[in-house]
Amino acid sequence: MEDTTEKVLEHIRKLLRDYKIPDLEGDLAGFAVLRQIHEELKTIREVLLSFSAGDFSPAITIRGIIPGCLKALQAHLRHLIWQVQMVEKGDFTQEIRFMGEFSTAFNNMVRQLNHSLNALRQKEEALMALNDELRSEVAHRNSAVEALQKSEARFKFLASHDPLTGILNRRSFIDRADMELKEATMFSVPCCLALMDIDYFKQFNDTYGHLAGDETLRHVVRVISSGLRKNDFLGRYGGEEFIIFFSRIDKEMGIAVVERLRKILSETPVAMENGPVSVYASFGIVESFMEEFPEKGDYVERLIYDADTALYAAKRAGRNRVILYDPQQAKDFAGQIPVIRDVDEP
User: Fold this and answer.
1) Is the model's pTM score more than 0.70?
2) Which residues pair with 198 in a beta bridge?
3) Residue 342 needs a FRET pair 20 to 30 A away by CA distance; which of 27, 34, 73, 265 works?
4) How confident is the model at residue 332 (pLDDT cuts 50, 70, 90)?
């Protein structure tokens, strides 16, 4: 009997301690209670092995205190897994109250995560607000820079252009003509310069008023500009006088071009309240062709003086005509015509 008892206890010991489940053989198989213990311990072993491998799905069908504890542990672990999954999805309200110190550690971890997430959200909101402020500031500065650039461009334009007609003013015209003549001299090609004066403009102003006179000046600029070539340019010399630079053109072609401009202008009346009014102009033209450009910076002014001499001759000859400058004519009028003058209409 003692020998059988020892065999039973040894078999139960092996069920509890050995990795391999011992077989229930021989006379031990005849004990019904031992067979029941064997099956229950076998089932408990299989459940515990699954738990140790992270599988909490096995069904526990046996009864008793140990299986009951295993069922409770299984339920807790499954619920814990679900709660961890909820935390993973961003639910930091989960708390555990059934696992002692682990519950405390888990709950503290979740609270810390929730606190860190809230802090990150606050920082994100602050960064977004700062980003919006920076965007607004950049937009404001870009707008200010753009306005400043436009203002600077506007001031540069006003400094170099006539405010009434929008063409080059006298100083800017002379500077550009000076550069054009230097380049033309390098290639030994002629250029022409023409001075133009609207005929009887004072009488025109007295008849139609100064506002109509201003519109007439703009009209003349539009008509003359439409007849210029790409590299030619127009400037306002003063009052009703305009100055034109013809790039790389000799005097024969220059006379033809200016005569064409004079004819176009005379055939294009300006619109007035009481109907169209014809506008006429006199032109003096001079050719520039030099092997070497003079060192002094007054060469353009000297050409303007010569063109003005020819313009004066055109007015004396009856106006509404084109006169080419020649040296003999300059001798005839020497000392009578200043370099810069306002022509008074008779």
Assistant:
1) no
2) 281
3) 265
4) very low
| CATH fold of the domain at 170-332 | Alpha-Beta Plaits (3.30.70)
> Given the DSSP bridges, would you call strands 281-288 and 275-277 parallel, antiparallel or unpaired?
unpaired
Q: How confident is the model at residue 335 (pLDDT cuts 50, 70, 90)?
A: very low
Candidates 45, 345, 122, 304; CA nearest to 213 is: 345
The answer to whether 266 and 278 are in contact (CB under 8 A) is yes
Question: Cα–Cα distance between 65 and 272 in angstroms, integer?
Answer: 117
In angstroms, rounded to a whole number, what is the distance separating the alpha carbons of residues 204 and 252?
Answer: 32
The CA-to-CA distance between both ends of the chain, in Å, stands at 159
Domain ranges for the chain, please list them.
2-88, 95-160, 170-332
Residue showing tokens 């003063």: 238
**What DSSP character marks residue 345?**
P
Q: Tokens in use for 102?
A: 């682990």
Distance CA 269, CA 276 (A): 6
Q: Which residues are within 8 A (CB) of 138 and not within 5 positions of it... i.e. 6 or more apart?
A: none
Cβ neighbours around 109 below 10 Å, total: 12
Give me the residues paired with residue 277 across strands.
270
Strand 191-198 relative to strand 281-288, pairing: antiparallel
Nearest 5°: the CA angle 66, 67, 70 is 90
For residue 184, give both structure tokens.
Answer: 């033309």
Kind and range of the H or E run holding 206 = helix 201-208
Closest CA to 264 of 283, 286, 248, 251: 283
Encode pLDDT of 196-234 as tens digits: 999 999 998 999 999 999 999 999 999 999 999 999 999
User: How many alpha carbons fall within 13 Å on the CB side of residue 281?
Assistant: 31
Length of the chain equals 346
**Number of helical (H) and strand (E) elements in the chain, helices listed first:** 10, 7
